[in-house]
Structures are given as structure tokens and as C-alpha cells.
Specification:
about 220 residues; globular; about 0% strand; mainly alpha; 12 helices
Length: about 220
């Protein structure tokens, strides 16, 4: 069963290496998809379409965790940077009106330490991705600061989602090779559980941030 994914094993315990011919076929099938996927992801970020998680899982499914995660990090950073530049330019007023009162809630953090604050917002998605993409533009944050904090901050969640996508692909592939119909129990693997655990930990970061912030203020 040929799958359009790069010949790259999931970083999962017990992942099975593919045969040489299958590896070559998968690698060849995946190459034409990479530029198109990159374009779609960048467009989704620029247009603020809430599909980042699904697309990142798809990247892991198609290309494997390392390549899929890397493509996603680059695409998300590029798309975010384009939106940031647009917010600093002719679309600034329009985007600020669309963001509403969210922007002012971020003002103090960006004025104190723009890089660290943006890094925290990327690591712990407290506010919508769209808001975090454009808000720094209204507080004189430099483009290089924005790019660096975004690139570093989105890595953990991105690779966790890509890992999950890769593991889902492996489950489906094993079912296809064995010829049995998929069931929910097929997805109850140790690797998928670990990927979901990683995402759960990331999901708790906003709560941890709020608790720490309230204690400091108290």
C-alpha cells in the first residue's frame, strides 16, 4: 500500500522501517505535495482560517513527523509574518477593528518585553492565533523579534500534532496491510497516547500562565 508520505519513521517506539522500494515510492510521491501544502498552510494563516491543527496533523500524516513538522513551522511562521507586515501597513486599521478589544489587553506585555511575551503567547495559546499574529504590529515590535519568537514558540505544539498525524497514518496503514476494518481500538496505541498526552500538557499551559500571573499580581 503506497502512501504519499516521505520515507521517514515516526519517532514512535516500535515503528517499523519500510522496505527500500516502498521508501523510494513514498519519497517520490510526497515531493510534489510539499510546495502545494506549504502554500495552502501559508494561505490559511494569512486568511486566518482556523484549520491549523487539522493541517498540522495532515502534515504528519503525509510527510512524517520531522519533515511534516518542519514544513508546518516554516509555513506558519511565514504566514504569520506576512499577516504581521500587513497589519503594520495598509491593512492596519481594518485588522485592528477586526481584532477588537483583544489588542489592548496585550499592550502591557509587549511594551515590557516583546520577545519573551510573544514567546509565551506562542507556547501557551491564551489568545486566538490571529490576534497574536497582528497585535505585535500595533506596538512597534520589530519583524525579526516577531519571527524569532514565533518560530521558537510554535515548535512544541507543531511537532506534537505532526507526531499524532504520523501515528494515525501508521494505524491506517497497518489495517490496510492486514486487510481488517478499522475500529476505535486500533487507535489505542502507546504512541498515539503519548502524542495526545503531549498536546494535553501544552493545552494546560494557558491555565498555568494565568495562575502564575495572578499569584504575582496578588
Amino acid at each position: 500500500m503506497l502512501r504519499p508520505r516521505a520515507a521517514e519513521p515516526c519517532f514512535a517506539v516500535g515503528a517499523r522501517p519500510s522496505s527500500g522500494g516502498a521508501e523510494h515510492s513514498c519519497r517520490c510521491l510526497s515531493r510534489p505535495l510539499r510546495p502545494g501544502f506549504l502554500f495552502v498552510y501559508v494561505a490559511a494563516v494569512v486568511l486566518s482560517i482556523p484549520a491549523a491543527s487539522v493541517l498540522t496533523i495532515a502534515a504528519g500524516f503525509l510527510f512524517g513527523p520531522f519533515l511534516g513538522g518542519t514544513i508546518t513551522v516554516l509555513a506558519a511562521t511565514l504566514g504569520s509574518s506576512l499577516l504581521f507586515v500587513a497589519a503594520r501597513g495598509v491593512l492596519g486599521d481594518l485588522l485592528r477593528r477586526r481584532a477588537g478589544r483583544f489588542v489592548e489587553r496585550l499592550a502591557e506585555g509587549f511594551r515590557r518585553n516583546a520577545f519573551l511575551y510573544l514567546l509565551v503567547l506562542r507556547l501557551a495559546p491564551i489568545f486566538p492565533f490571529f490576534i497574536v499574529n497582528i497585535a505585535p504590529a500595533f506596538f512597534d515590535v520589530k519583524l525579526r523579534t516577531f519571527v524569532a519568537a514565533t518560530l521558537l514558540g510554535i515548535v512544541p505544539a507543531t511537532f506534537a500534532y505532526a507526531w499524532l498525524g504520523c501515528e494515525l497514518d501508521d494505524v491506517i496503514a497497518r489495517a490496510g496491510e492486514s486487510g481488517h476494518a478499522l475500529s476505535l481500538s486500533d487507535f489505542a496505541t502507546k504512541e498515539i497516547s503519548l502524542a495526545l498526552l503531549a498536546l494535553a500538557v501544552i493545552a494546560t499551559l494557558p491555565l498555568a500562565y494565568r495562575v502564575i500571573k495572578s499569584r504575582r499580581q496578588g
